[in-house]
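If your schedule permits, I should be very grateful for your opinion on a structural question. I have a record of one protein: its chain in single-letter code and its fold written as discrete structure tokens. Would you kindly read the sequence against the tokens and tell me how you understand this chain to fold? Thank you for your consideration; the sequence and its tokens are set out here.


***
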Amino acid sequence: MKAYIKTFGCQMNENDSERIMYLLENEGYERTYDIAASDLIVINTCTVREKAKNKLYGHIGNLKILKSKNRDILICIGGCTAQDLKEKLIEDFPFVDIVFGTHNIAELPELINRRVSTGKSICSIENNGFDPDLFKVKREYDFKAFVPITIGCDNYCSYCIVPFVRGNEKSVEVKKIIRNIEGLVSKGVIEVTLIGQNVNSYGKDLNEACTFSGLLEKVSDIKGLKRIRFMTSHPKDFSRSVIDIIKNRDNLVGHIHLPLQAGSNKILKEMNRNYTREDYLNIIENIREEIPDCSITTDIIVGFPGEERDDFLETLDMVRKVRFNRAFTFIYSPREGTRASKIKDYILSEEKKKWFKELLENQNRISYEENKKFAGKKFEVLVEGRSKKGANLLEGRMENNTIVNFKGEEKLIGSFARVKINRVKSFYLMGKIYI
């Protein structure tokens, strides 16, 4: 039997899809990347933005054709949108067989068996508590892995639906994380990414006290682990101790993803972000002082309810001051059930689009200028796979998370290569292997 999985959204969703594939393999399924050849389709959804939901609805609608050709295909919708919309997904798409929430991944095999035996569509979205099987995954790569250290979120940013669909924050026990990573390294993994909605708040709910910087230190001690990444960090509790441990440990990479979201204190307050632009700049100053070559990436929302031109200009000012290596930028999208969705918004969509364009132009220029600093220099790159930029090209990642494309043989995938940068783009680099 063949299983096809389509993943939308963040690294947590990618990790969830790896968990789903592990469960399906145990039930006798083999993964396929050809949706038309599949016996079971899983769509792992994202609900962070309205655009993601609309894209999902279009994707599900297209599955009706497959279902009409083969009524035995099982269509399963999971993830954050499933948790949010529940039975409405089956109401809107009666050909969907199973809807399962973010807390119900471990139930999927049983749900499949029940669907086959009863012939009735199923919706399972109950929060059954902490799932102990977070580390049972079918990994996409042999040489790198996502490692969840927290699930859920307690921050309740006014625009964000995640706490409502992922639940309250729970930390994974230190011993379980270390034991899991040691096992991964013994199987050839050389890079891990510690993931959570806010990794900085790790350990606050554990009986055995451990801070995030303390966890980083323990993970860094694991022999054979070449690179350690983490995301996402929240500025409100980003500690100096995290900077210190990155500075002093060679296998902790020089890349920090630190979502700004807005540069106006008025908007940050409305967003319930619990820090000011001054707080954020102070963090950046500390990072630059201790880790001068550290790459800093961010998320920015344009057009939040109540945001005016002057507020946007403060965000633009922050972009120019910080000089992010890259920014993931979005026009505000209301999510039903959040506090921000109830705030009156007077700014026209056309005006927001102008701001968004202005932000992109500034950030793209800065990204290009920052990348130009790498031209002519040599870097160690972890080769991750084939590149989409051209035939015979490989794609790798520098320590600071910058993508590099270069010619090379497929046998290099999963290993480090020394690459000299010879061409620069805003979002990636081109290079040549040297010995």
Q: What stands out?
A: Residues 161 and 336 are 8 Å apart (CA to CA).
